[in-house]
Amino acid sequence: MARIIALIVKELQAILRDRRGRVVLFAAPLIQLMVFGYAATFDLNRVPVAIYDQDGSEASRQLVARFLGAPAFALADTLRSDRRIDALIDSRAVQMVLVIGRHFTRDLLRGRAAPVQVIVDGRNSNTALIIVGYANTILTGFGDDWRAARGGRGPPAHLVMRARYNPALRSQWFVVPGIVALLTQVVTLVVIGLSVAREREAGTFDQLLVTPLTPLDILIGKSVPGLLIGMVEASVIVLAAVFWFHVPLRGSIGALYAGLLLFVTAVTGVGLAISAVSATQQQALLGAFLFMVPSVILSGFATPIANMPLWVERITLVNPLRYMLVIVRATFLEGAGFATLAGQFWPMAAIGAVNLGLAAWLFRKRST
Amino acid sequence: MNGAAWRRVRGLMRKEAVQIWRDPSALAIAFLLPAILLWLFGYGVTLDARRVPLGIVVERPGALAASFTAGFDRSRYFAPHRYLSGRDAEQAMAAGKVSGIVWLRADFGRQARTARGAPVGVVIDGVDANTARLVEGYVQQVWAGWVAAAAARQGERDALPLDIRPRVRFNPSVNSRHYLIPGLIALIMTLTGALLTALVIAREWERGTMEALMVTPVTLRDILVAKLVPYFALGMGGMFGSVGIAVFLFGVPLRGSMLVLSFCAALFMLAALGMGLLISTVARNQFVAGQLALITTFLPAFILSGFVFDLHSTPGFVQAISHVVAARYFIAILQSVFLAGDVWAVILPNAAALALLAAIFLALARALSRKRLD
Amino acid sequence: MTAETDGAALRLDRVCRRFSAGGREIAAVEEVSAVVAQGGITGLIGADGAGKTTLMRLIAGLLRPDRGAIEVLGIDVRRDPLAVQGRIGYMPQRFGLYEELTVRENLDLYADLHGVAPAARAARYAGLMAMTGLEPFTARRAGRLSGGMKQKLGLACTLVQPPRLLLLDEPTVGVDPVSRRELWEIIDRLTTDEGVTVLFSTAYLDEAARCRDVLLLHEGRLLAQGKPARFTAPMAGRTFRVAAPESGRRRLQARLAAAPGVIDTVIEGRFVRVVSEAAPWTPPPGIEAVAVAPRFEDGFVDELLRLRGGAATPSATSPAPPTPPPEPAKTVIAVERLTRRFGDFTAVDAVSFEVRRGEIFGLLGANGAGKSTTFRMLCGLLPASGGRLDVAGYDLRRARAAARGRIGYMAQKFSLYGDLTVAQNLAFFASAYGLRGGRRAARIGWALAEFGLGGMREAAARDLALGYRQRLALAAALMHAPDILFLDEPTSGVDPLARREFWRRIGALAEDGVTVLVTTHFMEEAEYCDRLVIMAQGRILAEGTPGEIRAGAADAARPDPTMEDAFVAVIGAASGAVAAETVA
After folding, report:
1. What is the pTM of this model?
2. ipTM of the complex as predicted
């Protein structure tokens, strides 16, 4: 036991005494959290729009005012004819054109549905859908108010929308907890993945193997520092998420940390396995990278797993990040506790166990 | 370039070609890695919500309620599940079994006859704000269809004062794969370009061959050119492979011309390789070079390029940072050339930006490298 | 271009170059001024860290001096490095070969780079291939050549365009004596036939004698410069040797080192070599000393001592204890037909030997001879493909952890945790070996005091000078007072004084009953061993005491051969035998 503690102390000293190591560990993740926390957003702001108001009446001006009053839209151009509509969209000068028909007021007054056209740029289909959604909300609101003002009879049913857990539908609330998991994975992977390769290059790994330490001791001595650093890292980012980005932390902190612990263990296992097969730091870095890119893209961080084809969804089952993302989002926003998250805990525990076992086996095979 | 210089560059390029041929790791990075990643991500990355699990609660069945909920059964966007009470549905949502709930109260039929109409409760899981918005939109569509049909049946007026006609240009079926795959190509080629140069130069340092090269009459320009040309050719090969996969495997339409695409791809490749050269020049230490390549390529190209997250909507400082991300310009070009055609208003400014970035990266690499070890 | 006519190939004027490491500045080259005349071989001699490589790189224009001027063939390097690089050849320590390219392709590349006209190539290649003996291998990839052949190819590549000045950075490190002799022959021929000026850096002091001039570097400063004879001349009449029984050499050495007027003692086969402080020296009573010719190393040690003050082999810390003659020595390490294959390559081929308690046992051979592989199998770092091995009754590879507590291991390059301080390194290894409480504190205190590391407890290990790193590595390996000590190339690169001190400690440990297994490619260090084996191509070619091995090579022409002569003879006999086998 004293030996393992000595190993852990040595490992922490080696990581923390290196200036470059400290930068990689603490400065880089915080900078990334700040930049990505603001950049990774699906919310729309100041989308450039052009307006072609053929009617030019009081009613149509009211409708235009509603669009320009919304923070999502910003007026980029006003059109007098339909000639430039396509050119404006093609050149990406505007992302949406609102066309109000010539008989807008007349149709409204006659109780005939007045045509309003919303033309959007579909090159980014996601943004296009969101713009259409925003426009729909504004237009429907205008219609309802118009009708209410004239005491007209409404449709037999209307929708009362409510978003649970994230009422304002802020992407930041969705993305920032995701970054907690993402950055924890990156840091843990870099620290652990390189540690054995670094000792191999320096020749100290042989030195370790001829001491009375067993491969298991070394494995534990290498994993625990990764766990500690990963947990500290995660805590710092969780604090930043709560106090800087004001993402509510509603669920059980115990469940969040239990999840983090399992997650960091699983990532440590992956890192050690990469470490054990790489002879140089360069190889270890490449290995860490080749694991990281697919694990981020196929994790549900930016694109929902539910939308993936079944065979890709099956691949994601071995990705620990997938489970951790569910846990951070559920504990932050949904107020989840242990009971609802059990289904996420055990797969990570299994992945961790398999990878640590694999790492131990590779250690024994390659190093002794 | 005079005869001696040309002979030097040719000798170095021939050496590089032999190395690539005999040590296939560079070939693997240039061709295999992009193909595998594009294939996997092309299937894996999509934002379209299909068959969203939706809980439907009808407290008192009736003809009107049935006609309302039938709209959800017919929609290809929803996979409806019936629940007997709101509580059951809420629990299902907490457990992640449904992403939204449509709730018709017991007095739905009675209220529908009043002037205000019956309120339909729609509760959506807002954790994933983006998906939540898409689901909201789909629910609205179903509702609007039902209202229009009901109004038409009864010859009523005024039910919907506005006739909203959305038109999505270039991608009428709003297939997110069509816009994500061009972005993926840019993302993957960013990685490939930086990895190729950073790793290859790191290898020369590691094996001590760089030191031997430097004491020959070779100039820095010779070395940079001889590194750039072979890996440029490799990278372009990988690029064409990726475009082929996008068009033939994923059926993304290529509406612009191949010539324009190739020209812009060449500019982008120069920028990506230039960044790799710059990184390996700044960080002579292989380890730092590798880490820098990782930090400065993947996540920025993923998050700061407009690939999935719209750049217009980000704060000013983020937009400012995004200007040095080459992928940002290339993604804009690719999305236009694939989906819209040769839109010069998009291509020219972005191509100019790429050319400028490439020139800056290459000039910096040239200016910062010394034919010395210090 | 007047400098070319006045015959100086190289002028250094007060050249300084510093590097910053770990927040402090290290002077790699400090105020070096020298002139090297055209033609002939000039040796740049010094230990690792003396500044040899930095000076070479400064001359080649790969580094800029902080201060001072360098003129190569009359050209200012700082102003026009390209012009200099077009006129010189430079072989860095790692040859600069592309391993994926064939011999011929490597030559083509360097010919292109140096602008050799295609018409002139055929003749030049033929000459180079004949000189280096690489003709049969032109289509072979450089990566598949042996170490010696790689080196010759590296040399050939720097010679495709005949250079005026040839810079060779430690070309003989790790090369077996046979290849080393061949390399020297090539270089001799270059200077005589082609009139090339050669600057040759080396840590082997015996190579100084082959140079026309010598620049002696120590810790960045030019200690002395001149003809090799200039170093041996002051030593005239001060060098002796004393005959000793093979088993009592170390005790005799300790006694002589303590004698008045002695500055240096070295074990040399059946003799102890003594260097006195001044010319007339009377040996202690009862000892008969015979005068011998001084060597370059004597001069170097003398210069170093004058710089540092004190004697080379201080007897202060631990005088060799008068241990009782060892009881019938027990076999501690037994190796029988040990074999290791990597794919279809046999690195170690049915090797057998035994090591007894309290013995210093050497594994001698060039890089790639199989000694490191043997060593790693003994330590349990590598599984054997066949054969039996037994270390203190265990096979360390399968042994329980406790068995490993009895051995100490010092890896090549003095592997330490560079980021950790001296004290942290010692504390870690103490705990790793299971020491705790008072004993742990006591051993750490002992290590700091015994190895003179007390003043640098808080320094990071990577910032230590090489000699101190070596001490720290040895201290770490000795934390738990092991019975068996494994040392892998323990003295490579350290200066002669540190080397003497190191061997004195090892000798004392052996006298205490510690069994020591050591690998080395320094032939003269074999003399410190009680017994040794010579390995080449995975096999043991000779085994015995240093005296026996040397005696085996003695003939009429060389009645008293050096260890290197013996090595060359043994290798020659072995390849002769192989040739005979193929003929038969």
Report:
1. 0.81
2. 0.78
